[in-house]
Amino acid sequence: MAQDTNGNIGGDGYDEDLQSLDIDDDVEEIDFHGSAKPPRRARGTMGAAAAAVVTVLVALVVVALGVGGWWMWRHHWRTVDVSVDGETVSARADTTIAHLLADHDDFGRTRGRLLSLKGKVLDKDGGEPVAVSINGAPVPVADYGTATIADAETMTVTPGKDVTEAHTSETRTKRYGTDINLNNGPIQVVTQQGEDGREEVWIGKRSKEEVVHKEIKPAKKLTVQSFAPQPAGKKVIALTFDDGPSQYTGPILDILKQKKVKATFFDLGEDALTYPKLEQRMVNEGHQVASHSVSHPYMPDMSRDDLRKEILTSFADLEQASGTKTRVLRAPYGAFGVQQWKDTADIVDMNVLWSIDTLDWKRPGKKAIHDEVLKNAYNGAIALMHDGGGDRTQDIEALPGIIDDLKKQGYSFVTIDELCEMGGVPKPAQGKE
């Protein structure tokens, strides 16, 4: 192939070659203007849907950033002015109530105190913290560390409440008390037996103080009342004889039988066993038999156990001798006080004293014995005489005149049980023993 001096392909030889190819002369010649280049590769293009998605995402991001920024400003970054009990306080919106209280020393309000069960201050700052209300609504103490002042306009702070210490509890027996009144008359009667109660007791964990929280079962007081019965519309007197039976008892019983008079005999247990027939005669002839102990001791000097043994033995002796039971006592010397009642109220129904003392034990003569009864007689009187414990001949001599002269004054004669029934003395509340 021929090439010219400019490097162009052509010349005669070239033409000849073309002709030999029998190419139509009418073929259009392609001209690249000396710079033939391959066609440019087309770039990828985004569809309309994808473009819309991108646009939305961008918008959402912008909105989120705007909302987040507003929220951070609203709840964290901005400064809030709060009226605290009339005083304006400024702080960041994310300040918690706990931090605000700490920064302002609880606004001068005091915490509650920790108190013992009996009200003693154990810790002046150990009670509840100050109370807070935001916009009029109380805020629970448990929320102080998380609740902020972001929405607060007003805030009220009040002192904390006192708190009572923690405690344990026990159920305990409550011992019964006593109500013993021996000053209203010669007849002392148990009107209510003592009964223990139950109560719940709190014990302070810190102070160890003990207080009764509540009564589970009330205790009942041992109640002993004294009476001076004076039966309405009547004129009665009770003759009583102590320290028997003895050789003087028979003649006294003879006089009482002859005069158709009843009396009460306060007998010694050991003597009753010595004279059982006299004891039985007393009962059979309508007289009342009661105890004057076994051997006439001074009971306040006795221990509880010895006192109870003395009384119970005397009751048993009288039952053995007379065939009748009794829970009625006349203490020797009349010496039977509050402590003796506390020791024996469950075994003794009644202790009987006297209102007329004939002083017959001094052997003043039958006239003195007679006159002492007559000048002191009244409706419901109890006259003290003796049928044992010494020479009782003066009592035997004085007794007929006493009875006759009292009858002339309109008196009738009753036993202690009869006097109590006529005079409205309450029935004894017997113990379980």
Automatic annotation (TrEMBL):
Its EC number is 3.2.1.8. It is an enzyme of class 3 (hydrolase). Keywords: Carbohydrate metabolism, Glycosidase, Hydrolase, Membrane, Metal-binding, Polysaccharide degradation, Transmembrane, Transmembrane helix, Xylan degradation. The chain crosses the membrane at residues 47-73. SUPFAM superfamilies: Glycoside hydrolase/deacetylase. GO terms for molecular function: endo-1,4-beta-xylanase activity; hydrolase activity, acting on carbon-nitrogen (but not peptide) bonds; metal ion binding. It holds the Pfam family Polysacc_deac_1. This is Xylanase/chitin deacetylase. Signal peptide: none annotated. One of its GO terms (cellular component) is membrane. One of its GO terms (biological process) is xylan catabolic process. Residues 235-414 form the NodB homology domain.
